[in-house]
């Protein structure tokens, strides 16, 4: 009932030329019939967006950015607004990634404001959350995840949830080669879905996609995506190779 989604997060990788080649390889590799059963998104660096937007036009693959500012416009040198992204055009934005939280001090509140900006400008949002290793070892992971979702998204209206996808990314699994087991991921996904039921309503809980991210590869994607509450993946490292990205889509 929930269509699968595989999203590639390129992070700060590829120059314009290498990025363009990678995009072309992905476009060549992904078949139309695959897009019928699985949505595919590419979250590329800002510099690539205009060219990529032209290339992906009509392809069925959604293009997104990896961040936007939490204010609409103004004296914020070096920043990019949601309105700018929408005017490229891109279709979505990745918000609250743990690297943004960790290296750029983004709090749940700030990410929540970014979500507002994105939605006001008609962008789809992938909202990332997930605990650190210390938080898991201290057995606080369920609380941490609940707080991230409540504080970042608790203010949204029922209608706004149509444009939100969640992504559970345990920080200890990102880029480390350590994947959460399918069971570990499933129990967090189920608790997040439960939370949506109490925080918003059952319909939103049932229809909101919850992706798993953290060292997803073609050889572990099938097992993860086979779990009841895992609706696809947010892919970092493996999205930088067209064959492995394609392998995950096929899974
Ligand atoms: P990874 O990154 O697949 O390289 O672990 C996932 C992410 O950070 O989105």
Task: Describe, in plain words, how this protein is organized in 3D.
- The longest helix has 18 residues, at 182-199.
- This protein is an alpha/beta fold and 251 residues long.
- It is globular.
- The protein has one domain (4-250): Alpha-Beta Barrel (TIM Barrel), CATH 3.20.20.
- The relative contact order is 0.15.
- Helix 3 links the parallel strand 2 and strand 3.
- It has 12 helices and 8 strands.
- The protein has an 8-stranded parallel beta barrel, surrounded by 6 helices.
- The model has no long low-confidence stretch (mean pLDDT 97).
- Residues 9, 169, 174-175, 213-216, 234-238 line the site of 2-phosphoglycolic acid.
What is the element layout, followed by pairings?
Layout: E1 4-9, H1 16-29, H2 32-37, E2 38-43, H3 49-56, E3 62-65, H4 82-87, E4 92-95, H5 98-104, H6 108-120, E5 124-129, H7 133-137, H8 141-153, E6 164-168, H9 182-199, H10 202-207, E7 210-213, H11 218-225, E8 232-235, H12 242-250
Parallel strand pairs: 1-2, 1-8, 2-3, 3-4, 4-5, 5-6, 6-7, 7-8
Helix pairs in contact: 1-3, 1-12, 6-8, 8-9, 11-12
Tell me the distance between the termini. 17 Å
List the ligand species.
Answer: 2-phosphoglycolic acid
The appropriate CATH architecture is: Alpha-Beta Barrel
Helix content: 40-55%
Number of helices: 12
Sequence of strands across the biggest β-sheet:
1-2-3-4-5-6-7-8
Count of the domains: 1
Order of helices and strands: EHHEHEHEHHEHHEHHEHEH
Number of strands: 8
Oligomer: single chain
